[in-house]
Design a protein that fits this description.
The complex is a heterodimer of chains A (329) and B (76). By secondary structure, chain A is mainly alpha-helical. Chain A has 13 helices and six strands. In chain B, helix 1 packs antiparallel against helix 2. Chain B has one domain. The longest helix of chain B has 37 residues. Classes of the chains: A mainly alpha (329), B mainly alpha (76). At the A-B interface, strand 4, helix 6, helix 10, helix 11 and helix 12 of A face helix 1 and helix 2 of B.
């Protein structure tokens, strides 16, 4: 345990400060090249730099490389490669809008390093009841985990600061769970993700100076999914991001097919004081944001905070679940 | 505070724990033997099929809860 402290502090510091220092530079370059998009939820036309995924991937990868130098274990290498491949998929999607099926299929291939390096345990652990060995089903879970996590985080990237703030809360909760389960190495990897996303949140929070884009959101999701697999905490990781899973579930159950989010009708509209209200459009999908504003219109900032409260609640449930892992009935 | 959404998250958490219990208690110990070399494949295949049925039931249960919560929010 003691020998992990110094490498952990170095890796976390690099994760935080590389994103913190690099993001303003990425913003300047994107703005200079006019690679910006309209922030649709602002009253005055505001252009925001997008995508900021480059600074996120540099933060995560550089911290993981440092960790790998200290602990050359296949688990770190697997997350490092999977996250990098997922970033490339996201970057392609940022540059050229691909069909709804492109991302899930391409991201499924990103799980290859985890499988090829054997950085997983085919026992699926559940709270209170113990583990179940399902090798074939687990292999499918590994393949599906990265696309599901990537798209789940990408699907909540709809308002200023939500994706980065949400993954910060979820990965801090996951880190605590991993420490409770005495899986310290993977807990440190999760902390690197948490600090990278926290640094990015500084620029992504309301009012955003940069959007992560598909490359940033998918990188967050893929890193989170990879950590869940190598740490053997798939169930806990899913619990920690339940609000995002609910968002995807609501969306899929109302749209009933996999589509690119840019192809769908906006489920919200603006009031005169520029708060978000639920749309009267019947065919617009049901989403978490639409549920939150069903009762009354809320400002973008208020909705963000409501989502963070839900994320904290899920994080607490995940930590309770981690404690329950040690108890068998 | 959106209590119905917190309730939905809590319901999902309970369903995950119950679903996990069913997996460990019923699917884990299942073992089918017959044609030697194919046994692991048959075992995994049957377990996957049962797991898929369980996931289907889980999704149906969630849909029912979602509809109930959505009705509750719109009635408020």
């Amino acid at each position: 345990m003691e020998q992990l402290i110094i490498p952990a502090i170095i890796a976390i510091t690099i994760a935080f400060f590389s994103v913190y220092g690099l993001t303003p530079f990425v913003i300047r370059v994107l703005e200079k090249r006019n690679i910006t998009v309209v922030d649709v939820n602002k009253k005055e036309k505001t252009m925001v730099a997008r995508p900021g995924g480059l600074s996120i991937i540099v933060g995560i990868e550089s911290s993981l490389i440092i960790l790998y130098i200290f602990f050359p274990i296949s688990e770190i290498l697997a997350v490092l490669l999977t996250t990098f491949f997922a970033f490339i998929v996201g970057l392609i999607d940022d540059k050229k809008t691909m069909g709804g099926w492109f991302k899930p299929v391409a991201l499924a291939f990103c799980a290859a390093p985890i499988i090829l390096l054997g950085a997983y345990d085919s026992n699926l652990a559940f709270p209170l009841f113990g583990t179940v060995q399902i090798p074939l089903l687990y292999m499918a879970l590994v393949v599906f985990m990265i696309p599901i996590m990537g798209n789940t985080i990408n699907s909540i990237d709809v308002l200023n600061g939500v994706a980065s703030g949400f993954i910060t809360i979820a990965s801090f909760a996951l880190s605590i769970c991993l420490f409770i389960l005495q899986n310290y190495e993977v807990g440190i990897i999760s902390l690197c993700l948490a600090f990278s996303s926290l640094a990015f949140y500084k620029y992504h929070k309301f009012p955003s100076k940069v959007f992560p884009g598909d490359s940033g959101a998918i990188t967050f999701g893929a890193a989170y999914g990879g950590i869940a697999i190598i740490g053997g905490v798939e169930v806990i990781a899913a619990i920690a991001i339940l609000p995002a899973i609910i968002n995807s579930f609501l969306f899929l159950s109302s749209v009933k097919k996999i589509v690119e989010h840019r192809e769908i009708k906006n489920p919200t509209s603006h009031t005169d004081d520029w708060k978000l209200q639920t749309t009267s459009e019947n065919h617009a999908p049901i989403t978490l944001v639409r549920l939150l504003i069903a009762k009354k219109p809320l400002s973008e900032k208020q909705i963000g905070y409501e989502i963070f409260k839900l994320a904290i609640f899920s994080g607490i449930l995940a930590i309770i679940t981690a404690f329950m892992m040690g108890v068998t009935i | 505070m959106s209590i119905p959404i917190f309730s939905f998250i809590f319901a999902m958490w309970i369903l995950i724990i119950i679903g996990g219990g069913l997996m460990v208690i019923f699917i884990g110990p299942l073992s089918f033997s017959g044609d030697g070399q194919l046994d692991p494949l048959i075992n995994s295949g049957i377990k996957v099929s049962i797991a898929m049925v369980l996931i289907f039931i889980w999704v149906i249960a969630l849909l029912k809860i979602k509809n109930w919560i959505f009705r509750k929010i719109t009635n408020q």
